[in-house]
Design goal:
This protein is of the alpha/beta class and 631 residues long. It is built from 26 helices and 10 strands. Among the domains are: 6-176, P-loop containing nucleotide triphosphate hydrolases (Rossmann fold), CATH 3.40.50; 244-363, Zinc Finger, Delta Prime, domain 3 (Up-down Bundle), CATH 1.20.272; 372-411, no CATH class; 511-616, GMP Synthetase, Chain A, domain 3 (2-Layer Sandwich). Helix 8 (180-193) packs across helix 9, helix 9 packs across helix 10 and helix 14 (278-296) packs antiparallel against helix 16 (323-340).
Amino acid sequence: MSYLVLARKSRPQNFDEVVGQRPVVKTLQNSLVRNRVAHAILFSGVRGVGKTTLARIMAKAVNCVKGPALNPCNTCDSCKAITAGSSLDLYEIDGASNRGIQEIRELKEKIRFLPVVSKHRVIIIDEVHMLTNEAFNALLKTLEEPPAHVYFMFATTELHKIPVTILSRCQRYELKRVSPLDLGGHLQKLAEAEGVQIEKGALDLVVREADGSVRDGLSLLDQVFSFGEKNILVDDVVQVLGLVDRELIFSLTEALLEQNPSVVFQALDEIFSYGMDLKRFTADLLSCCRSLILCKIKGCEPLLDISSSELARLQAMAANHSLQSLHLQLSLLMRGVEELRHSGQPRLLLETTFLKILQSGTVTPVTTLLARLDAVLAGVDGVGDGADKVVPYSGKLAAPDNKKPAAVLRESVGAEAPVSVVSSPLAVAKKTAVVTEPVVPEAPVPAASSPLATAPPDAVPPSSPVALAADSPAEEAVPIASAATEGDDETEQKEATPRIEPHQHDIRRDWMDFIAYVRDRSVWMAQNLQQADLVKEQGHELLLHYQDAGSCSMLRRDENRKQLMEFVLDFFQKDLTIRFVLPKTQGGTNAEGEDQPLKERHLLANDPLVMMTAEIFNGQIGDIRVGARFR
């Protein structure tokens, strides 16, 4: 006799042998004992969880001579015939190969006759969702009112493909995936019955690969038994099934979290040298990162279908890192896996993805950074992770080791970029000043895209370096003021604060206030002024430097230039002539001259009226045509 595989050899013959489907088994047993068995039963679920097995056990139970009972006896002639597959009263057909209306007609003819040996005729249709719509319609009437001696048992893996009219006529039982604990215990018993010793880690790998399917687990276990000897180790399972070693996955994940690039790239080289499937490797790595996140979230451990040893290791690994860091690693890894599907250089792409994860570092929540910044601006001493004491603000930023306040601010928020300390409105009102770093000369006026350029007038103090022109000498820079205590000497305050005559404005210092003044009278003109790259007073002229001629095309018109001169006269009390300084063209002439077609297109594309029209109608600027034939 040929060898019988474990999937057939160990098929359950009664309800007690069914693995992991206790609620369904209990319901079926109670229906048998109470004589409440439905005439049509539908079992649904993923592959290998016991749908067809339960249908056969039910067929034996309804026909058992010693029934009704919780389990079929498996000793009477009816039970033996059904177990051997030779019963004349059991019709088990495949819905994929008998899916037409003609096969259903023949089946309806057969069930008209009484059973030959058993008490009932049982019809088992596996993969019933493969039947055609015509076949389902032909089965409707018979399924709703079958003869008293007929029971229908259906099994399907795709419940959504079955018509609702069929579902409403059946009693449905949805079988779940078998848990790793139940499946591991079942496979361990089978291994002992076969006289094979299998290592706990090796058995966990088989259970994980089975993915809740008993039949898949039995097939994998049968394959491992054929490969190994009487003692099965983890390496045997890894080699025969072509898996990625779990230890390698854990080591790689831990190295990514600990920012250890040498271990990461060595592990990746080992994976490529063994020729492992990259798709399977990335899936295991993503699953490990997901498990770490669930371990970090309180109460989510039951969602992990892993062994207790792996769970303990993942919990210890997740305890050393924040949830934000784990989430960032998973997000970067998912992005890399998506790009891997279309990449011609998979190894290079994986290495680049790992570098991104390594360089991401430990993530500090934005709320923490904002809290540190607020603490610094509020004058809290000892700002940092270890600060547990709040000291009232003394009027000056705490600067240990004679550091400047700007340096203290940079260190507290962890920023590398330079930070400028700007005076508050209260400090300006009190006319107090603490001189810090001087304003850097030749500072251009901020562009329109700058946050300070678009800020309201009161958000930028008059002494801000942003309001200064480019050619401001260092010795004329206005010092930056900060708040002082009420107890400061009034004489020192007067000496530290430069005297400003009332109604006297300076172009370099008060340019942002002038833009706010213009905005109240003409919004578009203020926007164009904000786009100036440099503002400079030279003699009796106000020079406005623009890199793009289209940004000031409206301002250069005579009527708008005159209006702007009036605004300058009203605000600065100076009669200045406005002159626009634009980059020269290739021919050496100024851009204010006759424009070429390319220049005209550029001017039209950046014309404020065109941009405003596109914004109002939510449109886009398409092809721009210039020249005599298009006018």
